[in-house]
Write a structure and sequence with these properties.
By secondary structure, the protein is an alpha/beta fold. It folds into two domains: 132 residues, Aspartate Aminotransferase, domain 1, CATH 3.90.1150; 257 residues, Type I PLP-dependent aspartate aminotransferase-like (Major domain) (Aspartate Aminotransferase, domain 2, 3-Layer(aba) Sandwich), CATH 3.40.640. 39% of the residues lie in helices and 17% in strands. The protein is built from 14 helices and 17 strands. A seven-stranded mixed β-sheet has the order 4-10-9-8-7-5-6, sandwiched between helices. α7 links the parallel β7 and β8. α4 packs parallel to α5 and α11 packs parallel to α14. The protein starts with a helix and ends with a helix. The structure holds ligand C6P.
């Protein structure tokens, strides 16, 4: 048994049958499963420490505050932030990006400015910029993707032309949730900085799958969700460079984030409190810290290697199926494979695969403009994580062959 198979024992949910077959969970791009240690952290908190933070002087409140702020420090270490105050707890990637779009963009964008993003963005890293551009009169531009299956990644030559001094902000995904492309984030940040643009990285798909070091990337903002990295739902992070955060006005106001309040006016605490109005999601933040421990214990380089090996194997085996179109890079890719069969809708593929115990995702993956550009309505996606095995790819391939036979494609 390989070390990776031992990992399966840590995830209670995996040990069940679905439709009479062992569960094969390949929908990790949507959300990952949770190890026992993360589940226990939630139970422990609610059984022993549950209290409001930053407000009380009693023992439980102090314990909860210490654990919550300890989680912030743990997250800062996880992404190598210079200061825990650069870690703002949010509901997830979507909220994190919206905070930047509303706070930073509101204060800085004006007509004639350009917000640059790419053709491969998830709706959560597209629509907030559409809204910011609309509100400010700025223009939205896109770095194109190359190849009829977007196998060529971002067009870095076009980027040279697009990155003019008019670009005030460049927002891009670290890993595409539909293509599996790993973008050269450090280089993109360096090039953006050269024209004075600030950078926003959508790390939703990378954070739990590879080392992410904000100081090495030299980004200004980075957004991610806990639930895709073995943590709970409803918690995520917005990392922001301290110098930028302290100059930003909050987009949400209320208790906990204020320094002084009068009937007519109020002043704000510094970051991170200024961006965390109201009672925060204490339990889930603490359990997210535990998820960091779990992933670091496995090693993020090792996780990236494991993901890559499974995705490469899946890519090879799926390529042998007749009538299949596989999206994304042919070489280096993250741990997911997105594909389409001629004449079979992805929803049918997912429904048939479910009969074989497989959890896949079918649809546009919140990437409608990219799908349209590639001439597709939807794809089926298999996305891998630490507990997946080569044997599960065999189950996937066997199921897809059954589906192809049913639809008369083989
Ligand atoms: N992608 C997927 O199945 P939230 O929902 O806020 O946790 O994450 C949004 C998000 C932002 N960026 C990228 C690159 C993402 O992949 C996601 C979530 C899921 O692909 C759900 S659509």
């Amino acid at each position: 048994m390989s070390a990776w198979q031992n990992v399966r024992a840590d995830f209670p949910v995996l040990h069940q049958q679905v439709n009479g077959k062992p569960l094969v969970y390949l929908d990790n791009g949507a959300t990952s499963q949770k190890p026992r240690s993360v589940i226990d952290a939630l139970v422990h908190y609610y059984e022993r420490d549950n209290s409001n933070v930053h407000r009380g002087l009693h023992t439980l409140s102090m314990r909860a505050t210490d654990a919550y702020e300890g989680a912030r420090a743990r997250l800062a270490k996880f992404i190598n932030a210079a200061d825990p105050a650069e870690v703002i707890f949010t509901r997830g990637t979507t909220e994190s990006i919206n905070i930047v779009a509303r706070s930073w963009a509101h204060a800085h964008l004006k007509p004639g400015d350009v917000v640059l993003t790419t053709e491969m963005e998830h709706h959560s890293n597209l629509i907030p910029w559409q809204q910011a551009a609309k509100a400010s009169g700025a223009t939205l531009r896109f770095v194109p993707v190359l190849g009829e299956n977007a196998e060529g990644g971002l067009d870095l030559l076009a980027l040279d032309q697009l990155l003019t001094p008019a670009v005030k902000l460049f927002a891009f995904t670290h890993i595409s949730n539909t293509l599996g492309t790993i973008n050269p984030a450090k280089e993109l940040c360096r090039r953006a900085r050269a024209v004075g643009a600030i950078t926003v990285i959508d790390a939703a798909q990378s954070i739990g799958h590879m080392p992410v070091d904000v100081r090495d990337l030299d980004c200004d903002f980075l957004a991610f969700s806990g639930h895709k990295m073995c943590g709970p739902t409803g918690i995520g992070v917005l990392y922001g460079r301290r110098a930028l955060l302290d100059k930003l006005a909050p987009d949400e106001t209320g208790g906990g984030m204020v320094a002084t309040v009068h009937y007519e006016t109020a002043t704000w605490k510094p970051a991170p409190e200024r961006f965390e109005a109201g009672t925060p999601n204490v339990a889930d933040a603490i359990a997210l810290g535990t998820a960091c421990d779990y992933l670091d214990n496995l090693g993020r380089e090792a996780i990236a290697q494991h993901d890559h090996e499974l995705a490469t194997l899946a890519y090879q085996k799926l390529s042998e199926l007749p009538g299949i179109r596989i999206l994304g890079p042919t070489g280096e890719r993250s741990g997911l494979v997105s594909f389409a069969f001629v004449d079979v809708h992805a929803h049918d593929v997912v429904t048939f695969a479910d009969e074989d115990g497989l959890a896949l995702r079918g649809g546009h993956h919140c990437n409608q403009p990219l799908m349209r550009k590639l001439g597709l309505a939807s794809t089926t996606r298999a996305s891998f994580y630490v507990y997946n095995t080569a044997e599960e790819i065999d189950v996937l391939v066997a199921s897809l062959r059954r589906i192809q036979k049913f639809f008369g494609l083989s």
